[in-house]
Fold this protein.
Amino acid sequence: MDKFVVRGGNPLLGTIKVSGAKNSALPCMAAAILTEDEVILENIPQVQDIETERKLLTSMGAEVELGYGRAQHRTHIKCAILSDPVAKYEIVKTMRASSLVLGPLIARTGIARVAMPGGCAIGGRPIDLHINGLEAMGATITQDHGYLEARADRLKGAHIVFDKITVTGTEDLLMAATLAEGESVFENCAREPEVTDLAALLVAMGAKIEGAGTSTIRIQGVSKLHGARHRINPDRIEAGTFLIAGAITGGDLNVDCCEPKHLAALISKLEQCGVKIDVGADHVRVRSGGELKAADITTEEYPGFPTDMQAQYMALATQSEGTSTVIENIFENRFMHVQELIRMGANITISGRAATVRGKTPLQSAAVMCSDLRASASLVLAALVADGETILDRVYHLDRGYEHFEEKLRGVGAQIRRMGDVFGKR
Ligand code: UD1
């Protein structure tokens, strides 16, 4: 398993580029299932979850070609024949987003067999809302040996009010509804930019969708979708992680190729912390404004403060003067980075969904363990300001969702390198 070795102390200076959003790319790749034509996606990030999804689609009979570098991170997907509409456990066990193939598979082939998903260990993460929605659209769903099996001749449009706001649940049912018979109306939908991105692709494929990006989405089902070309949105969580990297190191960092509108909640919080921010059309510059000041956050659905930025923000809070309260509202077990931050010298106490961070505390290097994707990013951020050399184990969690993370950070002055284990395994 690879490790990162990070020596803290350097302010990050220069320009760092943001890649395409993993969480947009995953549903958009799943959407290719809905048509026998070719779907071309650009700005696909080169991360492990995308490779997992490629394997998943290929195992079902799809042709998937991933090209990086000069090929502009483009993927060509053709699901002409889906000979094996099964999402096998061996492939999906590391990636919860695999539940995203459930809706499109059943809509296209009338049958889907999908292993119950794995993914980050940040809470129970049920998929009951996906299942209830598909049942409301006429699917019959059974569960055996860790697999869900869904069947339907043709899905029917339905009026669904989500009990809870779910991002991939909204995306899964949205894809299913595009090929359903009649109209679907979904209420209490997720408004995340990734939902809007997916809807843009679906519309380009011939779907009839109104209201994506608001809490009510209307879909008129069509009998067939066709191929399309679509460019994936920039990754707002990667961009946000870099903003915090600039702020925590007291640097001057231009985070380029991002969509500042998607970063509004984080930007306003950083300003509250005393960080200087200049917003351009597709870039955000972050500069030190002197001492960082404590500020509280509460994670919420978009456009609120993203749960996917909570761990990284917590690293920043350890370097802010005063007490910051961090409330995690979306997932019940998302404080696994806290023990590791404490081992590096942070003063954090947890009570239920609230963490209290007392700063500023000097951080020291230590051997630390990554527990999930965003927790890994949080530990890298802490290591960038720690005294000495921090060794981060299990960076495969980070590789699921950040493209060339250490190379990008090195490019702006961080001292970070990857170390393979003695057996050379990942
Ligand atoms: C997506 C993102 C993830 C982000 C999360 C919240 C992807 C691939 N992943 O995850 O990075 O942290 O949104 O912004 O896009 N829930 C249920 N039943 C369900 C579905 C969800 O109770 O059927 C609950 C979850 O346990 C959680 C909450 O709803 O408490 C939100 O989860 P959801 O929005 O579904 O997260 P994901 O789509 O898995």
